[in-house]
Hints:
The chain contains 6 helices and 12 strands. It has helices spanning 26-39, 57-76, 127-131, 133-149, 153-169, 181-191, and strands spanning 4-6, 9-13, 42-46, 81-84, 103-105, 108-112, 115-119, 197-200, 207-210, 216-219, 228-233, 236-241. The strands form 2 sheets. A 6-stranded mixed beta sheet has the order 1-6-7-8-10-9, covered by helices on one side. Strands 5-4-3-2-11-12 form a 6-stranded mixed beta sheet. Helix 1 (26-39) packs parallel to helix 2.
Amino acid sequence: MITEIRDRKLVVISDLHLGNPFSKxxxxxxxxxxxxxxxxxxxxxxxxxxxxxxxxxxxxxxxxPEVFHAIKSFTGNGRNIYYVIGNHDIVLENFLNxxxxxxxxxxxxxxxxxxxxxxxxxHLYDPFFVKRPALYEFVTWLGGFALKLHPSLYKLWIAFEKxxxxxxxxxxxxxxxGEHAAFRRAAIELSERGFDSVVFGHTHHAGKAELPNxxxxxxxxxxxxxxxxxxxxEGRVELKHWERSKRIS
Length: 249
């Protein structure tokens, strides 16, 4: 198991949910790996890369082989893939050794240039997940069933969370739109341990928020709708959106 790395060029993606009936991330993921290899980046999948909690076995059978072929090609070119455990793939905690071309980790502390970056999926800071795990599991199952019936419900849920964060959760706290204020508080606590930037996934809301101590909190978002990613290059950390026009033929 690895938790400390030094890396000059690194990109972070999260919440691909490959195998979820709603996920269309297979081809963008394959193309992203080809692009990252060409550009000399290593890759972090920051949790929920593979869908287990809401899995469609037919869908994962279609998605996984081509993705694993791209991973094999990527690592065969001398690049590294780090896989941070999320909540939809939490069973992978049983494989916290190198597995399938990945270097598995519960979190990553990254040194890049003169900066320290903490990368963690973030589900352990979700009040719902922590305080009501049985109910959370039931709602997750129910959500998977709903997605099979009406995939568009996901977009309605994301819009609802953004509304709730703006008018209910974060009345006086500046954070990432769509998130509970608990995630920003967790990022502040982690930054006080000496991290210049903190990167979560989990919430599916890509964004950036400045913290009061001068550090920065990022969320790498989800590939269920768009293709956001975090780029770390010689200590510079940026939220970007990958364009499929960059794909390598």
